[in-house]
Write a structure and sequence with these properties.
It is built from 1 helix and 30 strands. It is mainly beta. The longest helix is centred in the C-terminal third of the chain and has 7 residues. The two termini are about 20 Å apart.
């Protein structure tokens, strides 16, 4: 499950051995010493000659998976069941996390590639990087979770993290405003699954498949697609008459995209009344389309426009799913189109419906 930093330089991924790596995509010379990918999920390294440079005796994690990378490439988050990866001083001395995760649960680790804040990624320098477990709300005990996925914001400046997890009795949705000063906030709970959340700065987008309870709210909220601003507590809620998935915020947090089989929807903004149901003309039942809304609840674009303009490239029954948005000013959207069982990535200029790929 690869991810790329916002500037397109850094690729993060995990391999079949269960280790997390970061690769500099700008280096193409195989003779360059920085060409090979860098191991992120390591422990028990040392500096035996005390020259301030790490010796190359890092031990890989027992297993590390599902990494995410920040927009600048500085922060990498990943999952591991190994308590010994904790290295808050970046000196190789631990200490290990005070409690290992229970069977079947994982720790979230936050790896800072510029721990001394000098603006360079000092991967070989003692103290140049740190790896810390994400604590629970007490600030001391590791937050052990069963995760569907971890995702860092790809915003250029923010260091937000969001994830959904099942505790065994309920689903929980969590948000961490700043992974370098982590204070996890529980956003909502439900007996039904939450989707993998998308985060942009203080805004969080997710799909609830059943009724759920916002933390601190008196009444449950109905299923649907939601965007929550964790600073202002303002929300945009969208209910549909279809099956929804893959909510994605634009990098600046001003647009929401998702796929849905809906043929109609209604919107509620900032705790107001539900607006009337809006039908979608010429929408095929049970066919996934990609929809883009702004945070006033206005539908601003959909793949229905492409199907009408170019039915040869976008047949009426070909699913369009899994959207991704850059900043709203770029007017681009990417998504997956499936035609006769074959999948391809489409990139569209939303302002003109020009097919770029």
């Amino acid at each position: 499950r690869p991810q790329v930093s916002a500037d397109g330089r850094w690729l993060v991924y995990y391999d079949q051995s269960g280790q997390v790596y970061v690769k500099d995509l700008t280096i193409t010379d195989t003779a360059d010493p920085n060409y090979p990918p860098k191991l992120i999920s390591y422990k028990n390294w040392s500096d035996t000659d005390n020259d301030g440079i790490r010796d190359s005796d890092q031990t890989p994690s027992e297993i590390a998976i599902l990494p995410a990378i920040s927009g600048s490439g500085r922060i990498v988050a990943f999952l591991s069941q190994d308590p010994a990866l904790n290295d808050p001083q970046g000196n190789g001395n631990g200490p290990a996390a005070p409690t290992p995760p229970p069977d079947g649960r994982w720790l979230i680790y936050i790896h800072d590639r510029d721990a001394d804040g000098n603006g360079t990624l000092d991967e070989a320098k003692v103290g140049g990087t740190t790896t810390r477990f994400l604590p629970d709300q007490t600030g001391n005990t590791p937050l052990s979770v069963t995760l569907t996925e971890v995702r860092l914001s790809l915003d250029q400046t923010r260091r937000s993290l969001a994830f959904s997890t099942r505790t065994g009795t309920q689903w929980e949705l969590w948000f961490v405003p700043d992974v370098q000063n982590p204070s996890p906030q529980q956003i909502a709970t439900s007996s039904s699954p939450f989707s993998i959340p998308s985060v942009a700065g203080s805004r969080l987008a997710f799909t609830a498949s059943g009724p759920f309870q916002f933390t601190g709210a008196n009444q449950p909220s109905p299923p649907g697609i939601y965007v929550v601003d964790t600073n202002t507590n303002q929300t945009v809620a969208i209910q549909t008459n279809g099956v929804n998935g893959a909510p994605a915020l634009s990098r600046d947090g001003t647009l929401l995209a998702f796929h849905s089989t809906m043929t109609g929807f209604r919107v509620k903004v900032n705790g107001g009344q539900w607006q009337p149901w809006q039908p979608l003309p010429n929408k095929r039942n049970a066919v996934d389309d990609v929809f883009v809304f702004n945070l006033t609840g206005l539908l601003v674009w959909s793949t229905l426009d492409l199907r009408q303009a170019n039915p040869a490239q976008f047949p009426p029954y070909a699913p369009c799913v899994n959207p991704a948005l850059p900043s709203s000013s770029a007017n681009l959207i990417a998504f997956q189109e499936i035609v006769n069982g074959a999948s391809q990535v489409r990139v569209i200029d939303r302002s003109s419906n020009t097919v770029l790929r």
